[in-house]
Amino acid sequence: MIKIENLSVRVQDKQILKNINLTIADGENICILGQNGCGKTTLLKAIAGLITYEGKISIDNVDIQTLKRKDLAKKLSMMSQFTNVAFDYSVYETVMMGRYSQLKSKSLFPTVNSEDRKIVEDALKLSDLYELSNRSINSLSGGQQQRVFLAKNLAQNPDILLLDEPNNHLDLKNQIELINYLREWSKSKNKNVIGVFHDLPLALSLTDQVIFMKEGQIVKQGLFTDIATKSLLEEVFEVQLLDFYQKQSDYFKHIRD
Ligand SMILES: Nc1ncnc2c1ncn2[C@@H]1O[C@H](COP(=O)(O)OP(=O)(O)OP(=O)(O)O)[C@@H](O)[C@H]1O
Predict the structure, then answer these.
(1) 42 alpha carbon – ligand 1 mean position (Å)
(2) CB 55 within 8 Å of CB 5
(3) What CA–CA distances, in Å, run from 184 to 47, 159, 201, 207, 250?
(4) Among 45, 36, 37, 33, which Cα is nearest to 7's?
(5) Taking the CA of residue 14 as centre, how many other CA atoms within 13 Å lie in the half-sphere pointing to its CB?
């Protein structure tokens, strides 16, 4: 269980998150939605222990600030919106990096065993990357790189997967397969996926547990079907969202078999 109590983040003079309270049960997925700059990424970074904050974040009743980095990495991993490909590692090497926090040895250069190799190979196959294992990540397309970083996070096998706009760069097939996989992964293994999305229908295909944010605060959270109103969506997104979706669904009615 993840519990967030009175979380606030301030950078210099700017209040970025204000008094966030949230409880996420094991096996529950949550999607975070809101306009650019409302604080979604900052919320993920706080949960990942990457920034300083006021308040308390605990995982299974342990305050994350009391955990060493490596112990926190055993529990959670975060896939950022912008992935860094500064070094010319191969696809295989990059995904294997996801295993390092899980290796048992305490030595500086822990050895990788056959189980680690199997986990990495499974993550590569699942992300449709196996054939690209030896390619340099710098030689891949944006969508292929996105899948490599997702595979790295999956190889880490965390209890909690934090995803910041995981569908960036992915074609429709990969977007749909990713969401389906994440839903199944969390359900079958009782894990949490906490994802930031801009596409509401895509987010709802992962989970109907939603958090709507605005200006650093949670405006509303809960089951989409319980909380969604036209006025709430317009307040959060500042656009006539329903009219837009209505027009889109009208187009789909014209598609013939
Ligand atoms: N290191 C920083 N220094 C100053 N301001 C920051 C810093 N990090 C974030 N901010 C500001 O905090 C606010 C929230 O940023 P955040 O990245 O969390 O938004 P977001 O909801 O994820 O946006 P997007 O949808 O564009 O990714 C923004 O106004 C941003 O400019």
Answers:
(1) 6
(2) yes
(3) 23, 14, 18, 11, 30
(4) 45
(5) 8
Atom of ligand 1 nearest to the CA of 43: 18
Write the residue with the smallest CA distance to atom 12 of ligand 1: 16
36 touches ligand 1 (CB under 6 Å): yes
Which amino acid residue places its CA nearest to atom 26 of ligand 1? 36
Domains of the chain: 1-67+160-241 (3.40.50.300), 85-158 (no CATH)
Q: Is the pLDDT of residue 144 over 60?
A: yes
Q: What's the pLDDT score for residue 85? A: 64
User: Is residue 218 within 8 Å of residue 212, measured between CB atoms?
Assistant: yes
Q: Is 60 left (phi over 0), alpha (psi -120 to 50) or beta?
A: left
Instruction: Supply φ then ψ for residue 114, to 5 degrees.
Output: -65, -30
Beta-bridge partners for 54: 8
Mutate to test the pocket of ligand 1, among 17, 33, 42 (most ligand atoms within 8 A of CB): 42
**pLDDT at position 105 over 70:** no
pTM: 0.91
Q: Give the count of alpha carbons within 13 A of 106, CB side only.
A: 0
Confidence grade of residue 109 (pLDDT, cut at 50, 70, 90): low
Evaluate if residue 64 carries a pLDDT over 90: yes
Rounded average pLDDT over 169-194 = 89
Instruction: Look at residue 30 and give its three-state secondary structure.
Output: strand
